[in-house]
Amino acid sequence: MWIKICGNTNLEDASLAAQLGADAVGFVFAPSPRQVTAAQVAAITPHLPSHIERIGVFHSSDAQQIAAIVHEAGLTAVQLHGTLDLPLAQRLAEEFTGSVRIIQTLHWTVAPATESPAARLASQIERIARLGFAGRILIDSKVGAATGGTGVAFDWTASRALFSSAPSGLHLIVAGGLNPQNVARAIARLNPWGVDVSSGIESSPGRKDPALLALFIQSARAVLPHYSRS
Q1: Staple 215 to which of 24, 27, 180, 222, CB 3.0 to 4.6 Å?
Q2: Which pLDDT score is estimated for 226?
């Protein structure tokens, strides 16, 4: 099970996540209570173990700006968190030529919602698989205008078929409302390739609670102790 600890704002939290067994740490460059700058992250990433992925979360449509932050901050992956923008993703894929991985976020609307977004997301996943610019897709909750960090889970029952029918070679990551108490249930229900958590393990926005962080990783690892991280 691939585990990403997102919303990091300081070296202490990011280092602890790595020490406890996380596979990736995330830094939010999009507007958020957890937003950081490239300079802040550049002071953190050199001190992290080399095997830990350093992922920047972006809500920008400016490929050059994203690329500049990636290089300054020492990132190894980009998570595109806004509306699906295929030209932007393809420009970044051409810019990085495989040296920096791309994770595309898709949003499962929780509220207000008049119908299940399953069909829409399935179509988007198929398009991403066909274009091949991203090997990983993160499914997150959308509550009103908020597209992350809400602490609200989407419908794991209604989305189960979406996860089970993912195209071969495309890894799906579940996010939104995860915490130490429900992550095992989410994994058992959806069988995702990975999990992503931010607000569910915080003592305050941008600060991790060490006990909750440890329990989250322990709980996620206990469900599927052996899982490909490629």
Answers
A1: 180
A2: 41
